[in-house]
């Protein structure tokens, strides 16, 4: 069982345009609304990979039932801490060149009482899981240290996976994190420098290992991904596919890593599965996730090489 913790759910409105013309009239060609948030996407992708997930986190009274229905359709168990207000709406604008422009809302306020309620709920739920994934931003009223507060109540026997940025990540790393998954931009921001080569990416990844992570999985977009534990490092290139949307690709990688971590500790296989899921995700529109058939098709095309 994999527990997914989503502190900041979102309604993602994906808008497709011929081109984005700033300061001018733009006409929508296609619009898709999905009920997501990073850890929510992870739970859905786990289900697509035939894994078993349990979804928790904060939820909001307005629109919240739609999230439960989305999880129910995938057969995912869930239990949330409910708050007043509305789920935030994130806008993903995609043009014909597959360029993505994101406008993310911050969401409604979460009171301290509700924060403590989620910490207690995670402590209860994590007693019966093998892996816990916490990912995404935090809503209004929640301090960056909340990542540490939540992760610290999870038993040390549970493998903790984290996908978040900057101060959230620093606090998370104080709680025996098993794996972190920055993308290239996030890793560059963390080390405050541009990373042009695989060697530079690896060197930057070691800084996260030095902070306490056991594994670092860096997504490189169309260039694939790198996985390292400081002793062994591997690179895998994505398959050549038609890109419809990059949204949710990183979450799909996290899901594949988690599902296969229950089966193996082989780094090459974990990276191959992660890249397969991330690549499959970009073939779908909006934040709609991949099918298992598409994942299996792409998996056959993915190769892994060791980095020296």
Helix content: 25-40%
Give the strand content. 25-35%
Q: Low-confidence segments, ≥5 residues, pLDDT <50?
A: none
Order of helices and strands: EEEHEHEEEHEHEHEHHEEEHHHE
By DSSP (H or I, 4+ residues per run), the number of helices equals: 10
| SS elements, strand count | 14
- Main pleated-sheet profile: 10 strands, mixed
Radius of gyration: 18 Å
What do the pLDDT scores average to?
93
What strand line-up does the widest sheet have? 5-4-1-8-9-10-11-12-13-14
Class by SSE composition: alpha/beta
Distance N to C terminus: 35 Å
Shape from CA axes?
Answer: globular
Write the layout of secondary structure elements.
Elements: E1 2-6, E2 10-16, E3 30-36, H1 38-48, E4 53-62, H2 64-73, E5 77-86, E6 88-94, E7 100-103, H3 112-125, E8 131-135, H4 146-151, E9 159-163, H5 166-172, E10 179-180, H6 184-191, H7 198-210, E11 215-219, E12 225-228, E13 233-236, H8 249-261, H9 267-281, H10 292-299, E14 304-306
Parallel strand pairs: 1-4, 1-8, 2-6, 4-5, 8-9, 9-10, 10-11
Antiparallel strand pairs: 2-3, 6-7, 11-12, 12-13, 13-14
